[in-house]
């Protein structure tokens, strides 16, 4: 049987007025992918190709520096938020290092001075990702038949968004885990992966490699959308398998929610249709704190990793 592909959606109709049939086509594909497994790719998404290429090259240069130089951009092991450069500790099954940033104006950011232009490009990437995230959020709100602007008004504070650029060292003969299978804890995640691949999504119980394609971004639906929609839309289960040939680089943007927001299944997906809520409500900051701890203090045992199942009813 041929490997089922991940659908690719052209977002250009959302950048021009009047293309209603183009918008409908895109929404139909997205709604289907979100209902089944929460994963799709986008093209003509608004992030310019030259900015993506430059960001990838600069990230490769940064990660090629010595640990000592990279650690100049670290916040230290006891920092409340893992801004700046970090490497997964040896006991973690996840083998990667990363540079994490909050919105460009955030006082938490620790951005490297070198390579020159890196900081400016990171900030530029961040702003483009926010714009694309807002378009995706509108589309998802419509696909869920929520009142116009519902998600936009609920999620009206962008200060908790964050972006990570990552490097995974090549797989060894015995071990190739980059990131263990997981779902993301935010609303919507966008990934720019290098042409070497490595990202895989679980679809109908099978791991499907997401084949990289120039200019394409990968999108996955994350836990908050799954909770709000009472599991109508799925938070994608995904993982990174390290390729053997060389290091792999990526950019991952976590379009998030302000911490004081209450997250629970919406009435449209529960009492209004006579369905029981599948999750208890929670403050986003409480869940986010546990998720950040997964990153900064990764548990050795998979069962100790904080995930959405803790709120399941
Ligand atoms: O590096 C990637 O392609 C994806 C990383 C990822 O899934 C994550 O950081 O949550
Ligand atoms: Fe992820």
TrEMBL record:
Q: Can you name the source organism?
A: Artemisia annua (Sweet wormwood)
Gene3D superfamilies this protein is in?
A: B-lactam Antibiotic, Isopenicillin N Synthase, Chain
- Which PANTHER family does the entry link to? 2-OXOGLUTARATE (2OG) AND FE(II)-DEPENDENT OXYGENASE SUPERFAMILY PROTEIN-RELATED (PTHR47990)
Family recorded in the similarity comment: Belongs to the iron/ascorbate-dependent oxidoreductase family.
Record region (Disordered)? 69-93
What is the name attached to this protein's record? Flavonol synthase/flavanone 3-hydroxylase
Q: Keywords in UniProt for this one?
A: Iron, Metal-binding, Oxidoreductase
Residues annotated as domain Fe2OG dioxygenase: 159-257
* Alphabetized GO MF terms: metal ion binding; oxidoreductase activity, acting on paired donors, with incorporation or reduction of molecular oxygen
Q: Which domain of life is it from?
A: Eukaryota
